[in-house]
Amino acid sequence: MTPVIHAVLAIAVMAVVTFLTRALPFLLFDRGGNPPKLVLYLGRVLPPAIIAMLIVYCLRGLRSASLFTPAGWLPQVIAVAAVILLHLWKHNNLLSIFGGTILYMVLVQVVFV
Fold first, then answer.
1. Which residues contact 92 (CB under 8 A, 6 or more apart)?
2. CA angle 6–12–16, rounded 5-degree value
């Protein structure tokens, strides 16, 4: 298979999968009724679960960080505290995640160089 044909097929498959993921909810659930209880349950429990997973992922390297090198652990701790404070203040998941991420990146790339 030539590289051009391979690229065209890959793009076509990606386009079909993207379209299906966008159209599938409208095909599965009618527009007039209430969403199924499973969908409501997932909408309620997934955001906190995702945030918890992100916290574990972000802090996984702290166990090997030395207490004598604050650049190795202080940015993470400050960013996690900012996420907690932002969420307690505004109760907005996106604001908490983006605010903590931006603060962490500024701390790592500007403050703790």
1. 86
2. 145
CA distance 99 to 93: 10
Residue 41: the pLDDT is 94
Cut 0.85: pTM above it: no
Query: What string of H, E and C letters represents the secondary structure of the chain?
Result: CCHHHHHHHHHHHHHHHHHHHHHHHHHHCCCCCCCCHHHHHHHHHHHHHHHHHHHHHHCCCHHHCCCCCHHHCHHHHHHHHHHHHHHHHHCCHHHHHHHHHHHHHHHHHHHCC
Enter the tokens of residue 27.
């095909």
